[in-house]
Amino acid sequence: MTTTLATTEPRSNERPRWNGISLSKAIIFTLIILASVVAAFPLVWMVLTSLKTPQETMAVPPVWFPATPNLDAYRQVADVISVGRSFINSAIIAVFTTGAILVTSLMAGYAFAKYQFKGRNVLFSVLIATMFLPPIVTLIPLYRIVGYLGLNASLAGVIVPNLANAFGIFLMRQFIKGVPDELIDAARMDGASELKIVFQIVAPSVMPAIAALALFAFVYHWNSYLWPLTVLQGNTDQYPIVISLSRLLSYNRGAMNTGLVMAGATLAVLPPLILFVFLQRFFVDSIVATGVKG
């Protein structure tokens, strides 16, 4: 009888539960939901506003949902800016820069991780130090160098200074250190060249890191504003979509077409969002692997 009572009485140290979920987990889930709502609200508001009429966008108190969603603002964007040309310019900048960063980061990361040479640690420390420089510090020197090379007012001037990235090299080096040396030695014994080892042996082993770096680099250079604005020097034919959106902002001041600005911004964020959907699995895997490795 004593044993039965002992098993049926509630434990004094048992944590309170709510519908099978402990209180601590319920608090965590609530915080996650709140953080997700706060993070997603500007994006949702932008899309909803792009579908409203001009009267609804200027209404006070604000109208949360359009009464009759329409795409008029999206049609008007093409009348104010050259959407197609701006998208092509952004794609050229983001794709070429991302591809170059992946190649240079993979090769440099492999050298720092697997080669032993004099001054390696010092050189890597200097490389890491450049990650902490504010971009505004290097703006003028890079601008002068691009000018000496005759690349001002061109997409080449936007792309060339960003062909390598210190963060990318650091990320690749950390992941490549985990590739077994025996695997690389076996490839060398089979007669594989160093380039073949990098791109056919090492690269598949660090694919989550490559995907994460591709996502970071593409989004950063797609959204880059200050450097392209400085280098292109008013050459509007070469403007990427982010700079072209500034023309929508000036247009908005006179016509009060907030929906027009929101439509342009919605179009501008679509490519990075689509890329994130495709690379989300690799991105999460790389974050998890980074957390496990510490």
Written overview of the protein:
The protein is mostly helical and 294 residues long. Helix content is 73%, strand content 1%. The chain folds into two domains: 28-73, no CATH class; 82-289, MetI-like (MetI-like fold), CATH 1.10.3720. It is built from 15 helices and two strands. Helix 10 runs antiparallel to helix 11 and helix 14 (241-255) packs antiparallel against helix 15. The longest helix has 36 residues, at 258-293. It is globular and about 70 Å long.
How is the secondary structure organized here?
Layout: H1 2-8, E1 17-18, E2 21-22, H2 23-50, H3 54-57, H4 72-80, H5 83-114, H6 120-130, H7 135-148, H8 155-159, H9 166-176, H10 181-189, H11 194-205, H12 207-222, H13 226-232, H14 241-255, H15 258-293
Antiparallel strand pairs: 1-2
Helix pairs in contact: 2-15, 4-15, 5-9, 5-12, 10-11, 12-15, 14-15
Keywords: Cell inner membrane, Cell membrane, Membrane, Transmembrane, Transmembrane helix, Transport
InterPro entries: MetI-like, MetI-like_sf
Family: Belongs to the binding-protein-dependent transport system permease family.
Summarize it.
The protein has 294 residues and is mainly α.
Key structural traits:
single chain, 294 residues, mainly alpha, two-stranded antiparallel sheet, 15 helices, 2 strands, disordered N terminus, cell inner membrane, MetI-like_sf, membrane
Q: How many structural domains does the protein architecture include? A: 2
Tell me the series of helices and strands, N- to C-terminal: HEEHHHHHHHHHHHHHH
| CATH A-level architecture of the largest domain | Orthogonal Bundle
* N- and C-termini, Cα separation: 52 Å
CATH superfamily of the largest domain: MetI-like
